[in-house]
Amino acid sequence: MKPVPLALDDIPPFRVPLRFYLTAPVFGAAAGVMWLSQGEFAFQSRWMNGTLAATHLLTLGFLAMVMLGSLFQVVPVLGGGAIPAARRIAPLVHAGLVAGTVCLVIGLDGFSPGWLGAALVLLAIAFGTFVALLAWRILRPSRGGDALFTIRLALLCLIATIVIGGWMAIGIARPEAGIRFRDWTDAHASFGLGGWVLLLIMGVGYQVVPMFHVTPPFPSWLVRGVGSTVFAGLCVLGVTRDSPLATLAATGVTLAGLVWAIGLLVLLSRRRRRRAEPAVRAWQFAAVALVIALLLTWKIVCLPDSLVPGVPAHQTGMLAAVLFGFGFAITVVFGMLGKIVPFLSFTHLQRRCLVRPAAIPLLPAMNRILSDRAARWQLRLHWVAVLGVVLAVCWPPSAPWAAGLVVLDFAHCFVNVATAAVRYRRASLAISGVEASPAAT
Ligand code: HEM
Q1: Which of 9, 53, 261, 367 could pair with 108 in a Cys bridge, judged by C-beta atoms 3.0 to 4.6 Å apart?
Q2: Rounded to the nearest whole angstrom, what is the distance from the C-alpha of residue 189 to the centroid of ligand 1?
């Protein structure tokens, strides 16, 4: 599959994704604080209120926040066309997601109906607006290639996740309705993590890995085959969990994920730009973490009675979840932020300089907006945090240390993005000065 030529004319202003990128690490750090408050009990049970709340600080507050912000840029760039009124709609989606996540987290932490009800309304506004806008763009025939095929599937999984999540929230808020919400948790978690998060990362990877790292493109059969298999497998697992069909579906999803991860590693090993960039290391680490998480999840579904050496039997699911969340998804996002924030800042400033050549000397190099060094330290800190969380899953006394590392990890991410934003703003103001001067026209 050849990456689609970028359609840079349609991209919205940089402040559209930036507000999402600046808010996301704050939610990530809040998840760490929540785990700190749980002491040794953090990472010990998926059903603790605090765990459910922290899960959504990460999945909605961090991952969905970055992903929604990025999609405002990615969909036009991949040929989906300009998102209508992006600059007016983005603040609404952002505000709804921030407020809705806060209400959901408070609601899940206290199982409190009022907060859950408010979360439902706010998140429905945020996601409803976003999905309606994006669906309108990406479902119509366009020149978007295979990357958009996978992003479309991710979007369908997002809709399923939110509908099931909302249904469960109603079940908790109104016990008299008799909704057996726990019957739905696994389907919600699989569509959320295995569908929305995994498929979206795959879809974006198909475009950005060959583009940023000068690798051969992903073959079309892999893109179409992996996306369809993961999506079909999740649909089956949504309706049955303990039947031969479920075993087949889990095996299909696992194999598709393995093919993607191995394909990614092979392509990266054949990249023409040989520098060991932080983003390359992030993709490599994430691919390995994904392979382990997928194998553990397959074991849980297909071989429930077998043991993993060194891992308490009741903690296998938690280990798979933290490897997927911290080891795979958050690693990819940190790697991408280190690459995409300077790239977008530079691209937006450069487009203005091309119209006003007198401003070109004011254009900072990408490395001056966010250095490779800063991105590399981010990844090193993150890897220590991932190891800390994995250790805490198996050895509870280390949990407070792991939670502290998670806070530091996201605080570092915030400092990196905020530093880049300040440098972008400075350069932008300087260029505005040139634009305003009559001599430049
Ligand atoms: C992209 C978005 C989302 C993702 C990735 C996601 C992920 C998850 C995961 C992984 C769990 C299981 C936690 C565990 O087993 O420890 C979970 C549980 C839950 N989620 Fe979400 N979620 C998302 C959005 C939502 C939304 C929008 C709502 C409600 C409006 C929601 C409501 C719930 C509820 C109520 C539970 C707990 C169910 C229970 O106690 O059994 N989620 N979510």
Answers
A1: 53
A2: 6
